[in-house]
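agent> fetching stored inputs for the zinc ion docking request
agent> found them:
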Amino acid sequence: MRKVQGNDTFQRINFLYQLSKEVVEKNPALSVYYDNLVINIAKKSVLKIHPDIKRQICKKCRCMLVDKKSSEIKLKTKNKLKFISLKCTVCGYERRFPADKNKDHRVWLEKPEAVVEIIT
Ligand SMILES: [Zn+2]
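agent> prediction call returned; pasting tokens
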């Protein structure tokens, strides 16, 4: 196996992320603690967190957002624009993501060309 810079850190983030998801229903405060660790580790080692993971962390209270456990996901329409509303039930903070089917809303990291190499 090839050595990858920051691999240990990625493993740590992955582990904490999973832990946070597990505990969020029973103990949101603990989930916030784990998510804070994830963000701090990433910041310290100057790593980018995948947008999929980032979107699941509440921007305000940093709680893990799991549908029906700690968040409400709804499809809303405003001014003919469709968007997905993701509301944190812990602190009430709401995030909106555009959901226009005619446009590509994926960020660069989610597109196939962003993947340089898959490490196993
Ligand atoms: Zn929140």
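agent> quick read of the result: Residues 58, 60-61, 63, 88, 90-91, 93 surround zinc ion (CB under 6 Å).
agent> awaiting further instructions
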